[in-house]
Design goal:
Elements: E1 2-7, H1 11-24, E2 30-37, H2 51-60, H3 67-88, H4 97-103, H5 125-133, E3 140-144, H6 147-160, E4 169-179, E5 183-185, E6 188-191, H7 199-203, E7 206-210, E8 235-242, H8 246-255, H9 260-263, H10 267-294
Parallel strand pairs: 1-8
Antiparallel strand pairs: 2-4, 3-7, 4-8, 5-6, 6-7
Helix pairs in contact: 6-8
């Protein structure tokens, strides 16, 4: 498995590349999905499984984090998310008395241990997707069927952290997942969930990949970037662009109505859009001052 890199220099060129790619794909029963990241150096690893998260789990659970320890941490967070949704009056997908009896009690955890490679259990997938969309770290990685939304997320994250290095780049990944339905590509599950899970998944044209768990009980956790779990004949396209072009990319996204208020369709999204606009103004000013000081 490999990542094919394509380096672009301007926001206009990456927008044109994404437009051409989008027009030439997604025909018949195949589908390309996209992911934007604010730093091109980051691997394709969900927040839950990144080194900093694993170190926290090691500190809280065990210095030698075993596969069942990690699943327990995921199970506990998901269970707590569901309980706090009760207090917030939020509806959980597929909820029922039976669902809770089968999944939410401590003793339920034991049923996952014999087949950890099947984690997360099918009944928990929609709830886990909802948790992911609302900020809980999971082993799901967010993708979208809209390349311009991926560009927005790469740009948005970059603008929120304007302490940039001169050669830093953002990245947008394109992954031909094959069938337009839920599928596996090698050991990676590609997952579409119902729009009823969250308005966010509808607005963001959301799709998820499920990071596989290959270790058995009592084996230490070993995390790899997503592409390393895919078949050897499968590749992911990685488009990169200098982070300094994010100001122009912000303008392009705005021009086409791609903003936080649209992608997070509630008052929180409106607030996020305001903060994002301020980040754009501040980051552009800081960048201009740095460039003038270098001159």
């Amino acid at each position: 498995m490999m990542i094919k890199n394509r380096k672009l220099e301007t926001a206009d060129s990456i927008w044109a590349e994404l437009s051409a790619l989008h027009q030439s794909t997604n025909f018949d029963d195949t589908e390309v999905i996209y992911r934007g990241q604010g730093n091109a150096q980051w691997d394709l690893i969900p927040t839950l499984l990144r080194p900093q998260s694993i170190e926290v789990f090691k500190h809280l659970i065990s210095d030698k984090l075993l596969s069942q320890d990690l699943v327990w941490a995921e199970f506990s967070m998901l269970r707590d998310f569901i309980y706090f949704c009760d207090e917030a009056g939020s509806i959980i997908p597929n909820d029922s008395v039976g669902f809770r009896e089968r999944n939410l009690f401590d003793h339920n955890f034991q049923k996952y241990l014999p087949n950890l490679d099947e984690w997360p259990h099918e009944e928990l997938i929609d709830a886990m997707a909802m948790a992911q969309l609302h900020g809980i770290p999971t082993r799901l990685l967010d993708w979208t069927t809209n390349p311009f939304i991926a560009a927005y997320f790469a740009m948005s994250h970059a603008l929120s952290e304007p302490d940039w290095k001169g050669d830093q780049e953002i990245a947008i990944f394109a992954f031909d997942k094959g069938t337009s339905k839920n599928t596996f590509r090698g050991e990676v599950r590609v997952l579409k969930v119902s729009g009823s899970v969250s308005k966010n998944v509808v607005a963001q044209h959301g799709v998820f990949t499920v990071h596989p768990l290959l270790e058995k009980v009592d084996e230490p956790v070993f995390i790899k970037s997503l592409e390393e779990y895919l078949p050897s004949d499968q590749s992911i396209l990685k488009l990169t662009m200098p982070i300094s072009e994010c100001f122009k990319l912000y303008k392009l996204c705005s021009l086409f109505g791609i903003n936080a208020a649209r992608l997070f369709p509630n008052a929180d999204g409106a607030s996020r859009a305001v903060i994002e606009n301020q980040s754009y103004v501040l980051a552009s000013m800081a960048y201009r001052i740095n460039q003038e000081n270098k001159a």
